[in-house]
Fold this protein.
Amino acid sequence: MIPAQTSILALSWVWIAATFVLGLLVGSFLNVVILRLPARMEWFWKRDARELLELPPDGTDPPPDLVRRASHCPHCKHPLAARDNIPVLSWLLLRGRCRYCKAPISKQYPVVELLSGIACALVVWRFGPGWQAVAALLFTWVLIAAAGIDLRTQLLPDSLTLPLLWLGLLVSLVPLFVDAHGAVLGAVTGYLALWAVYWLFKLATGKEGMGYGDFKLFAAAGAWMGPLALLPVIILAALSGAIVGLITLRARGQHASTPIPFGPFLAAAAWLWLVAGDRILAAYIHFSGLQ
């Protein structure tokens, strides 16, 4: 390998390593979003409901916001020092327990941080440094936050899905992944496809098979990647959701009718197709003998 190629390869790995560290740091913030955003949404819903019913305020303060309130132990409320906030490493050094009250710290913290770091590194490995990578990183972070919230609460907040949808439409003006025509068509098709499935299922069974947040998340995927990506994304999401859901329900001894959030599988499938969809399609065509 000639020196110039060696230098380029070394620089690429520097970018990937730096983005991995950035992903770990952002993952720490995503944990804050996953834990605090639903609580704040619930508080404001209750406040608005009391105002609508002309009831007096309940006197409670809103939960901590996403930025200004420092990190603290959810059990003893003790503020965490900087050494306790190092992504992944602090959790390992503390052996998964609070330094002050020794209460267990959820595995969610290192899992989300590590997931964010790995996903961000893969984005830069796939797209290289540039605007495509920047956009894909934003896409990745919103998906992780939305999936985490849905996994915990079975909610997909509009404050995440709608900005992701609008950002996909704006990115298409460049375009980075799909042109504006494809983005608009993808957004409309994505929303209407799951909306139709929802109503067909409800008319046939009298039950709700998914939430409106899933429609908006799928519409966002269409805005980012266009209508042609929607079929493989929904197939990947449905297959992975069915397999993981069945294993999880059996492991927990739960009934098959127990609701399983679909958002995490939809988010994972959308991210996978954005980053590696062309390679997955090429591999499928090759092994299926279609080419």
